[in-house]
Known about the structure:
Layout: H1 3-18, H2 23-34, H3 44-61, H4 63-77, H5 92-104, H6 114-119, H7 124-141, H8 156-168, H9 176-186, H10 191-220, H11 227-254, H12 258-277
Helix pairs in contact: 1-2, 1-3, 1-11, 2-7, 3-10, 3-11, 4-5, 5-8, 5-10, 7-9, 7-12, 8-9, 9-10, 10-11
Amino acid sequence: MTILNAIILGLVQGVAEFLPISSSGHLAILQDLFGMTTAEEGHLFFDVLLHLGTLVSIFVMYWGDITGMVREVFAVLRGGRTADGKPAGNLPAARLFFMIVIATLPLVLVLPVNDYVEQLYYMPTFVGAMLLLTGALLYVSDRMPRGRKNERSMRVADALVIGLCQCVATIPGISRSGTTITAGIATGLDRTFAMKFSFLMSIPAVLGANLLSFIDVFSEGIDFSLVPAYLLGMLAAMLSGIAAIWLMKFIARKSKFGAFSYYCLGAGVLTIILSLVF
């Protein structure tokens, strides 16, 4: 693991985590076709740091929403009152928090098959096929009617549907953000809110996955000589993640995801061809 490899992997992780093009798929492609690894060959700690870097990106870009949820959840626990004892009134951020919790629950379904899913990372032809599926999903999402639901009006059923789609998106090559945003649009969420919900619901998913990974990190050990490269990769993931979220916010307001659809279709075809040739 060189510093350059670490920075490239960090940039790919940050950009592909939030743009609907599948970070797992792109990292798998780099690993299988170009020999640039993360979790394999003793770099599991680096894989954890990359995901922490993208997690920081979400906190930076949605800090107001996150603090609002914390504040309103505590108000609910106080019986619907603020810290000074006044009635809190409507609590949409608290409702958003509980919808995220509901959407996260289906992830327990992945735990029994997680080891099998991880084996798919080393099958580039399969990853390419899943990129094609991601491209098709994004193409369909652009043709769905615009919804109006937000944190005040989305239903428990909507959150569960999005959560189940997040489970499917643990398969490498299927974009988590693309799949959950598409699911949100399909359930009638406003496009901008569907994107925000997708990114915020990744927080408990990433935290949970990293906590499980830390057990393996400690058993595997850490090569401290590589820590500077790891930290630079984490920084690259954080900065590129911030840029990607900003771009997604702009796109959600101004246009559609067609360009990402065609990119995933092209990347999927190219990956399948390269995997068959090499």
